[in-house]
C-alpha cells in the first residue's frame, strides 16, 4: 500500500502522520521539537527518529511523498538542506515548508483564506491566489497580542496597577499570585523576568478556569484577547481583495479552550467583514501533505 507522510514540527514537539491514498490516517507518532533556528542538528535528529520509526512500521519502499512544516525553516538555505537530507537518506520525494504555510495548506489546500493562530504566540496568514503573506507573528516583545502569553502578561499588568494604587486584588489576581508562589517565585518581577515565555503562557488555563466560574476580570481578559486577534485578522483582510465570502480558520489552544475568545472574535469580525465563514475545526497540520499531493499528482 502506497502512503504519504505529513510532519508538523514545532518549537516543543513534532507530530508525524502517515496517510493512505484515500487520505485516511494509518499511522501516528509524536517526537521531539523541530526548529532549526534553535538547533539544526537536533531538528534533523528528531525528524530522522520520527521518520525511521514510521518506516519500520510501514513498508519504506511504499512511501511516495513527504511534506513537513518546520518552524524557523525559512532562515538561509535551511529548507533546501533539509529537503536534500530527506531525499538523500530516504529516497523520498519531499517538500519542506514553514510551519504556518503548512498549516494553511492543511486548512485551505490551494484555496483562499485567512488562518489565525493563537497559542503561546499569535500570528495571521493570508493565502490568496496561491500566494501567501504573514501578518503579525512578531514575537512577544513586539506583538503576540491575543496569545496565551500576552493575556497572562496583561493580567499581571492589572495586578501591578492595583498594587501601586492600593486597590484590593480580585479573585483572579489572587489566584495568579498564588500560582507563582507555588512555582517558587517570591514576587511578580522574579516570575516575569526570570521565566521562559512558555512558562508564563502556562498560566493561561488558570484564566480560563476563573472565566468558567464567571470571574469578571478573567472574562474581560479573554474577550480582549478575541478583539486583539480580530484586529489582526481585519488588518490582514484589508491588505487583500477578497471577491467573495472569505474563510477564516481558527487554530491554537487559545481558540479551542475559550468560547469567550471565539465569541468576541466573531463579533468584532462581523462589524468589519460582511461575508465570512468561520472554520473552528482543529485540523492536523500534517493533513497538508494530502492537499499538496493532490495538486502535484
From TrEMBL:
Gene Ontology molecular function, alphabetical: N-acetylglucosamine kinase activity
Annotated InterPro entries: ATPase_BadF, ATPase_NBD, NAGK-like
Domain ATPase BadF/BadG/BcrA/BcrD type residues, every copy: 5-274
SUPFAM superfamilies documented for this protein: Actin-like ATPase domain
Superkingdom of origin: Bacteria
Pfam families linked: BcrAD_BadFG (PF01869)
Gene3D superfamilies xrefs: 3.30.420.40
Designated name of the protein: BadF-type ATPase
Source species of the chain: Tepidimicrobium xylanilyticum
Amino acid at each position: 500500500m502506497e502512503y504519504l507522510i505529513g510532519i508538523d514540527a514545532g518549537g516543543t514537539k513534532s507530530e508525524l502522520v502517515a496517510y493512505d491514498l484515500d487520505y485516511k490516517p494509518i499511522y501516528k507518532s509524536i517526537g521531539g521539537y523541530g526548529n532549526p533556528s534553535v538547533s539544526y542538528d537536533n531538528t534533523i535528529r528528531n525528524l530522522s527518529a520520527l521518520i525511521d520509526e514510521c518506516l519500520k512500521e510501514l513498508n519504506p519502499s511504499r512511501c511516495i511523498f513527504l511534506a513537513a512544516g518546520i518552524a524557523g525553516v525559512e532562515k538561509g538555505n535551511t529548507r533546501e538542506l533539509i529537503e536534500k537530507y530527506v531525499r538523500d537518506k530516504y529516497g523520498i520525494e519531499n517538500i519542506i515548508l514553514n510551519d504556518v504555510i503548512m498549516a494553511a495548506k492543511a486548512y485551505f489546500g490551494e484555496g483562499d483564506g485567512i488562518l489565525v493562530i493563537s497559542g503561546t504566540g499569535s500570528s495571521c496568514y493570508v493565502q490568496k491566489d496561491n500566494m501567501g503573506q504573514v501578518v503579525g507573528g512578531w514575537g512577544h516583545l513586539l506583538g503576540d497580542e491575543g496569545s496565551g502569553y500576552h493575556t497572562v502578561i496583561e493580567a499581571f499588568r492589572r495586578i501591578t496597577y492595583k498594587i501601586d494604587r492600593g486597590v484590593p486584588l480580585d479573585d483572579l489576581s489572587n489566584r495568579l499570585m498564588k500560582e507563582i508562589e507555588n512555582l517558587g517565585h517570591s514576587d511578580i518581577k522574579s516570575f516575569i523576568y526570570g521565566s521562559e515565555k512558555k512558562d508564563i503562557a502556562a498560566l493561561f488555563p488558570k484564566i480560563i478556569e476563573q472565566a468558567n466560574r464567571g470571574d469578571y476580570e478573567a472574562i474581560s481578559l479573554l474577550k480582549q484577547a478575541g478583539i486583539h486577534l480580530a484586529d489582526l485578522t481585519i488588518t490582514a483582510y484589508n491588505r487583500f481583495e477578497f471577491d467573495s465570502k472569505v474563510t477564516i480558520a481558527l487554530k491554537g489552544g487559545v481558540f479551542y479552550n475559550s468560547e469567550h475568545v471565539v465569541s468576541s472574535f466573531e463579533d468584532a469580525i462581523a462589524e468589519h467583514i460582511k461575508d465570512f465563514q468561520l472554520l473552528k475545526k482543529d485540523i492536523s497540520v500534517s493533513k497538508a501533505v494530502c492537499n499538496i499531493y493532490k495538486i502535484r499528482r
